[in-house]
Amino acid sequence: MEKRLFGSTGQQFPILSFGAQRIVDEHNCTEEEAIQIVNRAIDEGITYFDTAPSYSNGQSEERLGKALALQNRRHEVWIATKTHDRTRDGSLKLLEASLKRLQTDHVDEWRLHNIMTMEELDQCFAKGGALEALLEAKEQGLIKHISISGHTNPRVQLEAIERYAFDSALVALSAADHLVYSFAHEFLPKAIEKGVAIIGMKVMALGKLAPWYAKALQYTFSLPISTAIVGMESMAQLEQNLAIAKSFKPMTDLEQLAFLKEIMHLANPDVLRWKSTDWVSGEWYVRE
């Protein structure tokens, strides 16, 4: 697989990375299957694994930790996890629990999860806010890199990277996202200019792009990103994604335009629900 630089970190990753949200009971993936899928991914060169404490109440982190511990493979991978709490104290509690589930003494990347609004960004940057936790954790060696994620409004993430030199940003970059509140148009140029590593997500638009599976992956891989995480709940999905990534050739401008015309009808609130201000309701975490 093609490898790309991860922003200004000096690290490199293959274009295909592993979204661990789906290796859980909720997605009909057993623990045994999860362990097999994770190890197969590593065998095939995937080294970047994304998870979060809010994914199935920690089961995603727990299974990733078990898969790595059973064959002593922690040193082979880069783990990114998140905090959905907007406070320092709440975030540090989440990190402590994440490290236990992941069976590690540090994570390579810790990110502010799903910052949707300027108000949430302000909460994180305020005194006693979540950013204080990220900075303290880095100072203590519990994390190595600081990140942010966003699905909804690219202007929020643009403001974030003006306020702080985040090492990376995980943002929605499906072909359908190209058409509404486009991170590809609005966020990528400035992030690249600042040396921020960009991780693409929502590649399949929650399954809505499944009829165009290979093209959907090709579109996101063709963007100027460092890597793209894809959720995988079965060995068949992993093998399909690996095959597409290994044979990847960038889309030409004309191919991209033709594809966007083909899927333009998907640019509506029923499909792009994460662009809606009520997206967090029951989707990622319960607000206290």
TrEMBL record:
Residues 16-217 form the NADP-dependent oxidoreductase domain. InterPro entries: AKR2_Oxidoreductase (IPR053135), NAD(P)_OxRdtase_dom_sf (IPR036812), NADP_OxRdtase_dom (IPR023210). It comes from the Bacteria. This is Oxidoreductase. It comes from Paenibacillus ferrarius. The lineage of its organism: Bacteria, Bacillati, Bacillota, Bacilli, Bacillales.
